[in-house]
Amino acid sequence: MTRVLWLYAIRLSDEVLSKPRFVARNPDYKRGKPCYYIGSTIYPPKKRFEMHKSGHKSSWWVREFGQHVSPSKCFRIEVENAQERDACERAYAEELRARGYGIWQN
Description:
Strand content: 25-35%
Mean pLDDT: 96
Order of helices and strands: EHEHHEEHE
Number of helices: 4
Number of strands: 5
Helix content: 25-40%
Distance between the termini: 24 Å
Structural class: alpha+beta
Oligomer: single chain
Number of domains: 1
Shape: globular
Low-confidence stretches: none
């Protein structure tokens, strides 16, 4: 059964660059490029951001450093299962990393 989900990007403050774990995951980060948290959800991205900020099924990275959803970096995907969803999310995160962005993706 195909499911329609959102791949979403939440802009993280530049303070995230002070965290060694974040820096280690982004060896090709280009100074001055934005940093994002990448995730996937059944909810509209803005609603999912609110959930993160309120602590419901949230990422510490978004609670601590999340600023807003970046609509131009959000889009719909169709997947068959959780493995396909996870693969799409990872691929998107790696694509953005390769372009020099700072990315956190679980």
